[in-house]
TrEMBL record:
The keyword Transport applies. Keywords: Cell membrane, Membrane, Transmembrane, Transmembrane helix, Transport. It is found in: Cell membrane. This is Transporter, putative. InterPro entries: MFS_dom, MFS_trans_sf, TM_effector. Residues 225-415 form the Major facilitator superfamily (MFS) profile domain. It holds the Pfam family MFS_3. SUPFAM superfamilies: MFS general substrate transporter. It comes from Metapseudomonas furukawaii (Pseudomonas furukawaii). GO terms for cellular component: plasma membrane. It is a multi-pass membrane protein. The keyword Transport applies. The chain crosses the membrane at residues 21-45, 51-72, 180-197, 231-251, 263-281, 288-309, 315-338, 350-372, 378-397. One of its GO terms (molecular function) is transmembrane transporter activity.
Length: 415
């Protein structure tokens, strides 16, 4: 094993060569994904001016995580994960190419946008748990897994900080199709890294997909701290994560801006998320994450209310940074706890249940907040999400200490 003393604590997982290859390829791929996400949101609102359609498109792209994700995890655990991930990267690239061609030729419209978003959602239902569950194979020893998870999230959030402003600039000078084409090329980065990686085939679960799925579900249901953490992920993403649906409305209608304004708002949330993952990368103790997750959920609710009430772009950028910081600490902190508690043979299924909850209820929250914004306006819709999140935090507060004890006492398996 490489000498951990030669690597600073915040990036200690990079001492593993396989993780470095994955990290480099994923950096390219994630940046491309953010270019596409911002460009697609702007394309929808430019063509239709509908906040509800923004919610429908987000719903279509994320709902497969809720419906397909749990079974995808069981299917993943029965196959070689590295080979599957290479194949999924190729399919994601084809989806981006199709979106590029449709947009460049002017054939794109609301129906095709929702359809392409749904295709992306199905592919991501496999891609996300594949990447997450493979991280333990890229680092030798469980002690570096929390850091690898934090660094993986840091990549996502660094791209979230850089990608949206870059997308805004590109949209000002070129077109949405250019952003989609760049995303198609970006998938080559991760696929190339995975092809170079040398590792033994990942362990495969025995039995039918249904039996494997039920085994994972039984494990999660039998663990009280995991059930509680899943509930928190559900509420945080149903409420706080729905902000992304409304950002084009705020950028265009509240701040009278353009795609660059949208890029700055998204970039501010990305900056907050990046700071959150940098702090998580320095952590060693797992039990303290329980209190951190609750505190960040409270901050996220307050950030939603501040953003909803703000009429000044500078204050709104600050509120977005707080929201991004809070959501990241809640989601990534929970992911670190779950993967640290789950045995290796069940990790794909536990991760898939986590990701399906995270992105599935993000989809439901986005759909609901988009519909609500059509009725009462975007500020009131975002404020409603903030009040709901704060109400859940008030319910969770007296239960926090017991949850921390349960996490500390939970069995940790290596196999």
């Amino acid at each position: 094993m490489p000498d951990s003393r030669s690597w600073p604590t915040p990036i200690r997982a990079l001492r593993h060569p396989n993780f470095r290859l994955y990290f480099t390829g994923q950096a390219v791929s994630t940046l491309g994904s953010w270019l596409q996400q911002v460009a697609l949101a702007w394309l929808i609102y430019r063509l239709t001016g509908s906040a509800a359609l923004l919610g429908v498109t987000t719903f279509a792209s994320l709902l497969p995580q809720l419906l397909v994700g749990p079974l995808a995890g069981a299917w993943i655990d029965r196959h070689d994960k590295r080979r599957l991930l290479i194949g999924v990267q190729g399919l994601l690239g084809l989806q981006a190419i199709a979106l590029t061609v449709l947009t460049a030729t002017g054939l794109i419209g609301p129906t095709l946008i929702v359809l392409m978003a749904a295709v992306l959602g199905v592919l991501n239902a496999f891609d996300t748990p594949l990447r997450q569950s493979l991280l333990s194979q890229f680092v030798s020893g469980k002690e570096d897994l929390p850091n690898a998870l934090a660094l993986n999230a840091m990549l996502f959030n660094a791209s979230r900080f850089i990608g949206p402003p870059l997308a805004g600039l590109l949209l000002g000078f070129t077109s949405e199709a250019t952003c989609f084409a760049l995303n198609a090329l970006s998938y080559l980065g991760l696929a190339a890294g995975l092809l170079v990686i040398r590792m033994a085939p990942t362990p495969r679960a025995a039995g039918s997909t249904g039996d494997v799925f039920r085994e994972g579900l039984t494990y999660v249901a039998a663990q009280p701290p995991i059930r509680q953490m899943m509930l928190s992920v559900l509420v945080v993403n149903l409420t706080a994560s729905s902000y992304a649906v409304l950002l084009p409305v705020f950028a265009k209608d509240i701040f009278a801006g353009d795609a660059r304004t949208l890029g700055w708002l998204w970039g501010a949330a990305g900056l907050g998320s990046l700071v959150g993952t940098l702090l998580l990368a320095n952590r060693h103790a797992l039990t303290s994450l329980v209190g951190t997750i609750l505190a960040c959920a409270l901050a996220g609710g307050a950030g939603l209310l501040a953003f909803a009430a703000s009429q000044h772009l500078a204050l709104s950028l600050l509120a977005m940074a707080v929201i991004g910081f809070s959501i990241t600490n809640c989601n990534v902190g929970t992911n670190i706890l779950l993967q640290s508690l789950a045995p290796e043979r069940l990790r794909g299924r536990v991760v898939s249940l986590y990701t399906s909850t995270r992105f599935g209820f993000d989809a439901i929250g986005g759909l609901l907040v988009g519909i609500l914004a059509e009725q009462v306006g975007a500020p009131w819709a975002m404020a409603s999400a903030g009040f709901l999140l704060l109400g859940y935090c008030a319910w969770l507060l007296p239960r926090q200490r017991r949850l921390a004890r349960q996490v500390a006492d939970a069995p940790r398996e290596d196999g």
